Amino acid sequence: MNAEQQDRSLRYYTLYIMGISCYGWAPLFFLYISKHCTLTEVLELESIYYITVFLLEVPSGYFSDVFGRRKTLILSTLALVLSYATFALGQSYTTFILAQILLAMGISFNSGTDTSLHLALLHDTNRANEYGPREAKLATRGLMTSAFAALSGGLLGIFDMRLAYLLSALGALLGFYAAFRIKEPEHTEHATSIRDNLTTCIKLIKQPQLRWLFAFASVAIVLNHIPYEFYQPYIRNLGTKIFNYNTDTYATLWTGIHLMGVQLTASWMASRSSALSQRFGAQKFLLATMLLQVLLIGIMGVFEHAFVVILLLARAWPGAFQKAPLRAHITPLLPRRVSATYLSMQSLTGRLAFGGTLLLLSLTPEVLALFTDNYASTQKTNLPAILMTATGLSLCFFLFLVVFALKDRLEQSTEAT
Asked: Quick one: CATH architecture of 3-183+193-416?
């Protein structure tokens, strides 16, 4: 592939990232689904999503290593289009199950394949040194796209929440077009059997350079998703308390505006993530970003106040800070023939852990009702209890990573001496 084709493919890759980042449904998915399902059913639907990812994550990575990144991304975008259309057309628990399965397919087939393709395109013309800074720029553009899609989805939700899903379907179609136009570089390293790929990936996970990063990336998926999962009902409860509105008409607008602020500020953070990681050291920097997320989750659980909504503008900052440094320290260490499988395993571990966390959190009201007299199980009473439980779990995850880092550093210093 010549330089002109490579530059064109990189431009289409940027367009792909922006297309799949058009999450117009993000500010209202909880509000939309909870109109037709109970809080427990909403959490069950999220668990179904993560269980489906568990089943598809590694096979999709292996599919990418065997059949190519471009074909995998095309399948990913088609699944996203079908998912968003199903969400828009169906309004029942059963239909939402199908939509969640399709969404899981779209996300899992994209996971790991996108950044593997990006690195391959840069390797093809000896520009791999640009990978880290370019990942930061792509994260910025993706977050900016998500920001304006969130505002648009929130506005559309005032009229009909289904329109936000149709907006996302248009973005996924743009991603499909971009993936179709990308020319994937040819390479000599090809995946063997899935068993051999998995064996190689497990050996890689045990390497000193990767084992802590693997654990951190997995835990980060859990912690970064908790505020995302519960900020919509939090804002709705707060809106009912302060403004005394009892419908979701204005809730979609408020969550859309809020999410736009979240993504715009996160895009600014993402643009500086690579430089900050180099300045302070990757491990210290990553742990600091995770501590910020633990504090935000705790504040959500303790306080129900408008100032918390302002603080929650920072809920996407940890993920924005983490994405480019993690990829810059992990992806170049992976053999090309297993890179998508490895990254899928990493994502799988985190998503499976979050699925289990959601199931555990969904049991919180039942446990409270069992051990607390006269406990009134409603969404207003359940949400703070769930968030406090999430705070405790998040703190345990964080402390585990700190201890792991100290143990890792001690072992490496011992081996050096």
From this structure: Up-down Bundle (1.20)
